[in-house]
Amino acid sequence: MSPLPAGSVIGILGGGQLGRMIGSAAARLGFDVHIYAPDDSPPAARVAALHWQGTYDDRDTLRQFAESCDVITYEFENIPVETVEFLVSLGATVRPSAKSLETSQDRLTEKRFLNEIGIETGAYEAVDTVSDLETALEALGARGILKTRREGYDGKGQVRLKTRDDLAAAFDAIGAVPAILEAFVPFEREISVVIARDADGNMAAFDPSMNDHSGGILRTSIAPSGLSDTIIAKAVSMGETLARETGHIGVLALELFVLEDGTLLANEFAPRVHNSGHWTPEGCLTGQFEQHVRAVAGWPLGPVTRVFDVEMQNLLGEEALAPPESFGADAVVTLYGKRDAKPGRKMGHVVRRTGRA
Ligand code: AMP
Fold this sequence. Notes:
Elements: E1 9-13, H1 17-28, E2 32-37, E3 50-53, H2 59-68, E4 71-74, H3 81-89, H4 98-105, H5 107-116, E5 124-127, H6 130-139, E6 143-148, E7 158-162, H7 167-173, E8 179-183, E9 189-197, E10 203-205, E11 209-214, E12 217-223, H8 229-245, E13 250-258, E14 264-270, H9 280-283, H10 288-296, E15 308-316, E16 331-335, E17 346-356
Parallel strand pairs: 1-2, 1-4, 2-3
Antiparallel strand pairs: 5-8, 6-7, 6-8, 9-10, 9-11, 9-13, 11-12, 12-15, 13-14, 15-17, 16-17
Helix pairs in contact: 1-10, 4-5
Residues 122, 145, 152, 155, 182, 184-185, 190, 213, 216, 255, 267-268 line the site of adenosine monophosphate (AMP).
């Protein structure tokens, strides 16, 4: 596919805040954006040229959407793989491909894939029954985190376990569905590599940020991460391996645990722009959303030089209802336009430039 000229239509599967921010970046580059999402008036659709409302198996609406778009991308990883395959079967160009999606949708497949391409993870065991869980907990040193294989996010579908806990109740609590038990990783800090790969295979990684989670939800991302150049280079190289091996076109994010001795263990990856990269539009010459649009549109990547030290803070639930000026004169506020400020829900974020890089 040759580079798309301004005025072309970029379709986005999914209507959340990531789609909204990709869509805004695409609009700034002169593209029209069509959102495909089942919900009524989702955040992304309210800044887009058109909203195709349909479920992910609604073939008639998907067909019309495909016909209206010059390229299609996705903004969340739980889009059914069949939906992407169907769009491709109609002749649509979907970037990134179904491979990135399929691999990251299932924690077991994902960890096996990472290990196969030489990216180390913490120890883990597949768990399909309570008896598997007992054996796995024993094998992993009497402590672990039970996670559903599919559809967990922001700490949902996860339980921390110790040997004496009621394992049957824990398995029930995650819905008694196929799961994995992960060894508890005693990390010193968490970082992420947000990296873009273009259609010609060129790659550009943002400076990895240090990420702080609470209750499984990202609270803050800080760049620079404070890590040595050696560790940063190693992290970036892991991100490059992943982007290359999935044949990814677009942005992806690899979340890593950093151990006291500098060892890097992968936690998971997202085949899309990422919350821990929300500081990049304010901190770098090109932000992650524009970078993603450039890659999927067949444009060359922009420069990722970080020009500011930054701190990004997520606004959860009612935190986002505070008057914007209360975040301080130096705060760049982004609100997602979600109508219901439920506790823990990601409603917006604030970026503060704390110095020149
Ligand atoms: P996840 O949904 O897998 O990204 O997990 C959310 C957060 O929970 C991570 O960013 C970590 O802070 C914590 N966490 C997840 N898995 C582990 C693990 N195996 N060991 C220690 N902490 C973990």
